[in-house]
């Protein structure tokens, strides 16, 4: 089996733009070619964004915006990170936003949302529409840009892996979904979010879950999470197998083989 992450590279055609308008500061990059590309940006007391991609044919754009505002005088600006990236002929994409500031009374910062895709010899695509403020953070899919296939993350290849996680920054309080195999797969999510009080994976924000794992070929998935206080797990369509170790822990795993396999409206939420 070929390695999912490719090594170093050759030249990229890319653009980097930093601008400030209406007091907001924006950092944007585009890239196209074969090789590696890294993007990072930081908003003081707001968030830190990071993107890494490598492969035979990588393309995409990333925009980080710090509104440079101060809602309710908490000293924490609104920030956002928007990514739309693809890889072909094998490679990887990893994108994350970490919340670094929190308003008084809203607990500690340290929340993060991470999306990743890797493929040995096929294609991958990833979008992220994440934002932070003094109270928490979110990644919204509803009404926002998607991959060309209409999903949050796509992958295909002899060997591929998709990972997506929501973390509160506290021990034992996070949720995630992972799909790996040979063939193709996608995950679609309308909303995920986190704060010092807990997390929502694939639900919340007043938005219908609309979550879906779709796959063809052979492989396995893992879906689960943990919470200090309470955990709510949702799964309709095909049953998500798993065991509840205690009221605040869930780990579901399953294998698939065949065409057009799907698990719909999965979701998990945890509270500190």
Write the layout of secondary structure elements.
Elements: E1 12-21, E2 24-43, E3 47-66, E4 79-99, E5 112-119, E6 124-132, E7 137-140, E8 153-167, E9 174-188, E10 191-195, E11 198-201, E12 212-226, E13 230-236, E14 243-246, E15 249-271
Antiparallel strand pairs: 1-2, 2-3, 3-4, 4-5, 4-6, 5-8, 6-7, 6-8, 7-10, 8-9, 9-12, 10-11, 11-15, 12-15, 13-15, 14-15
Number of strands: 15
Judged by helices, strands and strand pairing, the structural class is mainly beta
Mean pLDDT: 87
Uncertain residue segments: 1-22, 236-241
Total helical elements: 0
The value of Rg in angstroms is 18 Å
**What's the end-to-end separation, in Å?**
41 Å
Q: Strand portion, in percent?
A: over 45%
Count of distinct structural domains: 1
Largest sheet: 15 strands, antiparallel
Helix share, percent: under 10%
Explain what this protein looks like in three dimensions.
With 272 residues, the protein is mostly beta strands. It has one domain. It contains no helices and 15 strands. It starts with 11 loop residues before the first strand and ends with a strand.
In short:
The chain is mainly beta and 272 residues long.
